[in-house]
Write a structure and sequence with these properties.
- By secondary structure, the protein is of the alpha/beta class.
- It has one domain: Rossmann fold (3-Layer(aba) Sandwich), CATH 3.40.50.
- About 3% of the residues have low confidence.
């Protein structure tokens, strides 16, 4: 593993200790995740075999397994995988999940005969991967033609982040990120995947629902927060408005065409 991956692994091992209470267990985080799950439940029916990238503490894999979906869930962080394995023991369908410590950059290590009915990456893991062309190549080998690949990535024009930056404009520049984060546009991402994947649809996640760091506000105004969640569901697929999501959920279809690069 090269130095940049080692740095990323160390960062996410440390983040694993606070990730559940900072995001997963918050009411706002659950609203965001429920919005993604509604799409996953449509795309991946029971009996499917799915590859998950950057699975974190495994909550998406657990959800899918409880619906009868088999999952190979991978993450660069050994601590995230440890927490995920501890969580899976509490569900009945634990046999449907395999957790593996594997950086997204090393998907080529997944066996060549392991063909999946689809793949997913939730909540910005791919924003931390520089070589998206390499990811596309690996996914094209690992998922069958006609299957879906669902990618939830950080948006470029997030409404709440824009408001936050305006409020904090006089507080100076933030500290640099330890992990490199890139935010490709929809057009750029579609172009990267175009040789083997067709972008079928995309929608915004967290357009009106605030980020998890505003959980104190959501606790204070629960009815209003639930109203924002309903609004989010109504407008998530509308042109222009969908681009204001904190995350953008892309649904690609694997085409039968061979790669051109």
């Amino acid at each position: 593993m090269d130095s940049s991956l080692k740095l990323s692994e160390s960062y996410w091992n440390e983040a694993a200790e606070t990730y559940p209470r900072a995001f997963t267990e918050t009411s706002l985080g659950k609203m965001w995740r429920d919005a993604v799950w509604r799409e996953l439940d449509i795309v991946f029916p029971p009996g499917s075999r799915v590859l998950e990238l950057n699975c974190g503490t495994g909550i998406d894999a657990l959800h899918l397994a409880q619906r009868g979906v088999s999952v190979l869930a991978c993450d660069i962080s050994s601590r995230m995988i440890e927490l995920a394995r501890n969580s899976v023991m509490a569900i009945d369908r634990a046999d449907l999940i395999e957790f593996r410590v594997l950086p997204t950059e090393q998907l080529a290590d997944v066996e060549g005969d392991a063909i999946f009915d689809g793949a997913l990456s939730n909540f910005s893991g791919l924003n931390c991967v520089r070589d998206l062309i390499g990811v596309r190549r690996d996914l094209s080998r690992l998922v069958r033609p006609g299957s879906r690949v669902v990618l939830c990535m950080l948006g470029r024009h997030a409404l709440w982040e824009t408001l936050r930056h305006l409020v904090r404009a006089t507080e100076g520049s933030p500290a640099p990120d330890v992990v490199n984060v890139q935010r490709p546009s929809r057009k750029c991402l579609a172009k990267v995947f175009a040789s083997e994947f067709l972008l079928r649809k995309w929608k915004g996640i967290g357009i009106t629902v605030p980020p998890a760091y505003m959980e104190h506000w959501a606790i204070r105004f629960p009815r209003f927060t639930r109203s924002l969640d309903r609004v989010d569901w109504l407008i998530s697929g509308l042109p222009v408005l969908r681009s204001l999501g904190a995350c953008i959920l892309f649904e690609f279809e694997r085409t039968p065409h061979a790669a051109r690069d």
